[in-house]
Amino acid sequence: MYPNTDKSPVDAALLKQFKVVVDIVYNPKNTLLIRHALEMGLDAIDGLHMLVCQAAKAQELWNKTVIDMKIIDQVLLEVDKELSL
């Protein structure tokens, strides 16, 4: 995570045993962990995705409603564009 962008909490060699990597860090968006996962052909979910989904889930709980995943995806695209991480 910023400012330690050249470090990863997980050794890249350990990633090969997984299919998906999820990182909670969103600055920078493409952390070393995410980059290693993508280089290995793994699915990788960055921290910004997690942050937006967490906010959507909180809204669902507070407002007793369901937010369509299409809306969440659109918000994610807009936030990603705005932050230009």
* CATH architecture term: 3-Layer(aba) Sandwich
Shape assignment: elongated
Tell me the CATH topology: Rossmann fold
Order of helices and strands: EHEHH
What is the spatial order of strands in the main beta sheet?
1-2
Main sheet? 2 strands, parallel
- CATH level 4 superfamily: NAD(P)-binding Rossmann-like Domain
Whole-angstrom Rg = 14 Å
Query: Could you give the count of β-strands?
Result: 2
User: Which structural class best describes the helix and strand composition?
Assistant: mainly alpha
Distance between the amino and carboxyl termini: 12 Å
Helix content: 40-55%
Question: If you average the pLDDT, what whole number results?
Answer: 92
CATH class identity: Alpha Beta
Number of domains: 1
Helical stretch tally: 3
The proportion of residues in beta strands is: 5-15%
The poorly predicted ranges are none
Explain how this protein is built.
- The chain is mostly helical and 85 residues long.
- The chain has a single domain, classed as 3-Layer(aba) Sandwich (Rossmann fold).
- Helices cover 47% and strands 7% of the residues.
- It has a two-stranded parallel ribbon with strand order 1-2.
- Helix 1 links the parallel strand 1 (20-22) and strand 2.
- Helix 2 crosses helix 3.
- The longest helix is centred in the middle third of the chain and has 17 residues, at 47-63.
- The chain is elongated and about 45 Å long.
- The termini are close together.
- 15% of the residues are buried.
